[in-house]
Structure formats: C-alpha cells, structure tokens
C-alpha cells in the first residue's frame, strides 16, 4: 500500500503535489514545490508512483516527496 509523505493512502488516478523541489536527471530542469502531478499509477514498488506532469510527460516519483491533493 503506497502512502504519501503525510501517511495518506494513494490510489490509482489520484492527483498529488510535490512537497520539495526536485532535480530531474537527464532533463536539466527542476520540478518546483507545489507542482501538480495528475492521474498517478501505482507501481510494483510501494515507494514509487508513475505520474504525468505538464510539459514533462510521464515520470516516476518517490512517494516520500508527494502529498495527496
């Protein structure tokens, strides 16, 4: 069961926001705190989710940096 930084359970299709600025390897850019990630998909690993971010596409983020919107 995947949980966000506050301990809330995450489900497929949830929207989340970043709680910390994150550097994206290979993209040469930084995702700012408060950025909305839409329509997450849970992966086999409970500590990671796939999500879509505007102007970035689909990326994998660790749940410890996410807060349920």
From TrEMBL:
Signal peptide: none
Ranges in a coiled coil: none
Superkingdom to which the source organism belongs: Bacteria
Domain Protein YjdM C-terminal per the UniProt entry, residue ranges: 3-69
Taxonomic lineage: Bacteria, Pseudomonadati, Campylobacterota, Epsilonproteobacteria, Campylobacterales
Pfam families: YjdM
InterPro entries tied to this protein: YjdM_C
Record's protein name: Protein YjdM C-terminal domain-containing protein
């Amino acid at each position: 069961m995947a949980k966000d930084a506050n301990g809330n359970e995450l489900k497929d299709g949830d929207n989340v926001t970043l709680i910390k600025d994150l550097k994206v390897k290979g993209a040469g850019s930084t995702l700012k705190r408060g950025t909305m990630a839409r329509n997450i998909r849970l992966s086999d690993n409970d500590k990671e989710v796939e999500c879509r971010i505007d102007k970035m596409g689909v990326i994998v983020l660790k749940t410890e940096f996410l807060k349920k919107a």
